[in-house]
Amino acid sequence: MTHLRFYAARALRSEPMLRSLSVPAAELDSALAGRRVALVGNARSLARQRHGTAIDGADLVVRINRAPMPAAASHGTRTDWLALAVRLPEADRLRLHPQRILWMSPKRKRLDWRSAHSPGFYLHPLESYRALMDRLGAPPSTGIMAAELILRAPCAALTLYGFDFFASQSLSGSRSIAQVPHDFAAEAAWIAARASTDPRLSVS
């Protein structure tokens, strides 16, 4: 798709045109099949842990948004996939160098041309976003959307790191829990309920 057509599709919110840039969900399922996945959140508390070796030891490492990584000992070094809901500054793109970008946000006007035309690009369907929002009673965070997406696939295991549901706030910003639109108590309950029935899911 040319730049002009892309920006026209984005401005007009033409979902079919934007969807044409995305790989199908079946391709993600195939890439995740049988693999041990580390999903790394941005909780400040992760910086006090030493999970870096375990994160890098996963078969696939998925990070979220700008993915601050203050130390290899706490955060590891690899980024295989990046789940995005914000525009990615070029410095972060070069630092993270993800093999695949997953655009999770319903805000299509934030989607940039380079991300949308990157290899293996995936656009999360609006209907999936809305269904999860209905279950949670609030807009879902990028992390919870990524967890649900991964668990839909036949992965062998999914371990969450840096998910404390905003108890320690986020490394990627200074907003308080009152300034974000998510219901983290509902998200924590969703994860706990899912982990109780799906042995693939764990939180470290």
UniProtKB/TrEMBL annotation:
GO annotation, cellular component aspect: endomembrane system; membrane
Domain of life: Bacteria
InterPro entries reported in the protein's UniProt record: Glyco_trans_29, GT29-like_sf
Record carries keyword Glycosyltransferase: yes
UniProt KW Transport keyword: no
Top-level taxonomy: Bacteria, Pseudomonadati, Pseudomonadota, Alphaproteobacteria, Rhodobacterales
Protein name, entry field: Glycosyltransferase family 29 (Sialyltransferase)
Primary location recorded for the protein, binned into one broad class: membrane
Any Pfam family matching the protein: Glyco_transf_29
Membrane topology qualifier: Single-pass membrane protein
Any GO molecular function: sialyltransferase activity
Localization of this protein: Endomembrane system; Membrane
Swiss-Prot/TrEMBL keywords: Glycoprotein, Glycosyltransferase, Membrane, Transferase, Transmembrane, Transmembrane helix
